[in-house]
Design a protein that fits this description.
Strand content of chain A: 5-15%
Protein name (chains A, B): Phospho-glucose isomerase C-terminal SIS domain-containing protein
GO molecular function (chains A, B): carbohydrate derivative binding; glucose-6-phosphate isomerase activity; mannose-6-phosphate isomerase activity
Mean pLDDT of chain A: 92
CATH class of the largest domain in chain A: Alpha Beta
Organism (chains A, B): Thermus arciformis
Oligomer: homodimer
Structural class of chain A: alpha/beta
Family (chains A, B): Belongs to the PGI/PMI family.
CATH superfamily of the largest domain in chain A: Glucose-6-phosphate isomerase like protein, domain 1
Order of helices and strands of chain A: HEHEHEEHHHEHHEHEHH
Pfam families (chains A, B): bact-PGI_C, PG_isomerase_N
Chain lengths: 290, 290
């Protein structure tokens, strides 16, 4: 098994995603000034998670409507653009698609940058400061030079190795899909998310195939009563179970800090599988056809 | 391997879910009269899919707010109830929780019944007629007496046997989670859904573990350009790929007809695994603690 505390393990990180991860805080475009409110946001692809983190409406009659275009999803882009343009609100297009007023390059770490842009653009500097502080606190324990026994992201990566992760985050459900995306794009790995009735799914979905198939590793994100019940249900049904409590801070800072922890975990998992954690060229090709 | 065209295979269906499936159309509570508009809906558990199928707002200032309580989700119920009661709209509680004005017993097939109630309660009889006709057309090909070679649900169940289904439904994404729920609750089986950036997930998530783990079976629901691109991407990456085009009809009828097809498929899959497709008692216990 590859050793995350040895330098040669990091040779597969050919384009230095570790540096982008380490230096993430404070990166991304900055709006010239706050945009007039009320604010709305429509988003897809890499912008999706940022839009879910803030509780902005998807539509405003006046003020500013941010259109976060960070994806390849067919048709959705055009439809959202058209919808945005029909209103009286100023439309600000952010992302990597043609016609973007604010350019944001594709990256698996862009969700942070969309969030940062939105917080600055809506005058929420204080909320951003809390998020950034939470990420900087996380970072102290997560970088490659922190050895396994003090590094929760390395530790979690070993737990998930050769297993199928199952993410459950009752305190903020969109984090599950964000985790699934990180593990695919950085970790090059498959993972599972439960449907809306998660506890029922845990009780029923693991019966017929109980004795076969991939060993599952449940990852309970953020704690709470539903996470405790899920733990009780899953304990006897999965191969491994990891609890990742949220750090101190606002609900927003907690969710982003957990996302950042998972990004590092996906990074270490890629190394353990011996694959490059950066984007493959095939993603550029998808972007071209869509 | 068990044979879906032989009677003894059906002995594990001890509580007769096949009958409930066959006779589904037209069941469920009927509102005394349409409720005053505008209409809104808040829903969780078994009511979730019905709420997603109709594009009703989650909040109305006046008129009627339907609160579909078909689940065990902790806290969510109480929070939604409180939120609903703060407005001036009439609140109509539908479901199996205490205090429901309209009772709807728990069942994996209840999503149809919540939908039917909502359509009748909002004066959408014509839309309901289209849905019911689509389901009755589907039924002709899906019941146990229709042999394998003419029965697409039986056929799909054999394709998914001993594989991990991966559902993708670009024309109506909530169908994926509804399918995942059906396969867990009826089929007692695990299945996968992609995150918001599904095509990117297909391109990247199957790399590191390409040669190991469960054989995946992709199920593309409903067709369209994104489904075609997904097919191109997945063809070389999964063990089996099934395309399930939507039948003729309104978008609503198409989505419900596909859901019905998947309910039958989950039923046949349970039989192939030799497990009872009906609810286990453990679900009652979950309902009691939550």
């Amino acid at each position: 098994m590859r050793d995350l505390d040895r330098e040669e393990t990091y040779l597969v990180d050919r384009r230095g995603l570790a540096l982008e991860l380490r230096d993430l805080v404070g990166t991304g475009p900055v709006p010239p000034a706050p945009y007039p409110g009320p604010h709305g946001v429509l988003a897809y692809g890499e912008g999706w998670f940022a839009a879910r983190l803030l509780s902005l409406p998807e539509w405003v009659e006046e003020g500013t409507l941010f259109l976060l275009e960070g994806g390849y999803d067919l048709g959705e882009a055009a439809a959202m653009g058209l919808m945005a343009e029909t209103g009286r609100a100023k439309v600000v297009r952010v992302g990597f698609r043609e016609g973007a007023e604010v350019y944001l390059a594709p990256s698996p770490l862009s969700p942070y940058r969309y969030l940062r842009f939105l917080l600055l653009a809506t005058g929420e500097e204080e909320a951003l400061r809390e998020v950034d502080e939470a990420l900087l606190r996380e970072r102290r324990r997560l970088t490659p030079e922190v050895p396994l026994e003090e590094n929760p992201a390395k530790f979690l990566a070993y737990t998930l190795l050769e297993r199928l992760p199952l993410f459950f985050s009752p305190f903020f459900r969109p984090l599950e899909e964000a985790a699934q995306s990180l593990f695919a794009r950085i970790g090059k790995s498959l993972s599972l998310t439960p449907p809306f009735s998660a506890l029922e799914f845990f009780l029923t979905g693991l019966e017929a195939r109980h004795e076969q198939g991939d060993p599952l590793a449940a990852v309970l994100l953020g704690g709470g009563e539903a996470a405790s019940l899920a733990k009780e249900i899953l304990e006897t049904r999965v191969d491994a179970l990891a609890e990742v409590p949220a750090p101190e801070g606002s609900r927003l800072a907690q969710a982003v800090a957990l996302w950042y922890r998972l990004a590092w975990t996906a990074y270490y998992l890629a190394l353990l599988y011996g694959v490059d954690p950066s984007d493959q060229e095939v993603l550029d090709r998808l972007r071209e056809v869509s």
